[in-house]
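Q: Could you write out the predicted structure for this multi-component system? I'm mainly interested in how the pieces pack against one another.
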Amino acid sequence: MQRTQFAGMACSIARTLDVIGEPWSPLILRDVYVGINRFDQLQDDLGISRKVLAQRLAWLVEQGVMERRQYSGRPPRHEYVLTTKGRELCDLLLVMVGWGDRWTAGDAGPPVLHRHHACGEIARAELRCSHCGEPMRATDIDVLPGPGAAPAS
Amino acid sequence: MQRTQFAGMACSIARTLDVIGEPWSPLILRDVYVGINRFDQLQDDLGISRKVLAQRLAWLVEQGVMERRQYSGRPPRHEYVLTTKGRELCDLLLVMVGWGDRWTAGDAGPPVLHRHHACGEIARAELRCSHCGEPMRATDIDVLPGPGAAPAS
DNA sequence: TCACTAGGTTCCCTGAAGGAACCCTATCGC
DNA sequence: GCGATAGGGTTCCTTCAGGGAACCTAGTGA
């Protein structure tokens, strides 16, 4: 096996990476999320090789992140749309944007802004605890084995 | 150039991927985050090729995500520790865990649990708006061009 | 009949990932 | 003094994935 497969690891990070960890996949997800839904549009926007684009799209469809939907019968034309699974995956993109804005944007400032529907303001996404609502960063937690942990060997 | 470099794109997602988008990098970050700090420990835990591990560590150090620190002078021994930049990157892992738990964990349940220091409870990380505090998912926002956007061509 | 478009597929070439062996320095046990 | 061991890499070789360009097929329009 050339590239190691992560899917078998007892780790949700590894299993998530197995779905979108390959190069280009998150950018394809981003484009489909913002409404770039067709093969040629994606290829133009990303500058990705058509071969790799076809492979990634097929994989993302297989994983249930996107659907290939026919939007015209004659001539037959297709587009890619996110499933619920894929839309939830976009939360990951939001967090990437947050980190990238903070550490890589430089003087030019962030390339995009997010306006929150609920309050109408330009805002960032923050991580908060599902239990108490206080900020919950990676530095604010203990990591404990869960029910799906690999058996101690 | 073989693999397309994402660093030049006017997109915080692409620039974040340039730092940790390569295969293995997020898993190395996870391991260092949970206290697996030495070369051989990392290699054992991940089953990664030593060559690739050395490359990834050097890149992550170059990017300021980790530091290579000497913890013993005689014999000279080194370990890798996260910088602030790297610790903030771990938030991304938290979100990956959230998605992976929900969509890939299956009947066995999540492999790890997170206990929040502030409240002491087992909890998940949720995305909330930095302005109003309400939930802020990828589906709850409009994406607008920001100051660092690429000039319209 | 010709050209054009969407959506891929096929081909070849290069270079990155995997794996194993090797290397260097330093300490330990004898 | 000498071999064994450990940490932390580096080197070499092989295989396969990414890049790029050309090609293909259905349908449409002129």
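A: Regarding packing and overall arrangement: Residues 21 and 129 of chain B are 26 Å apart (CA to CA).
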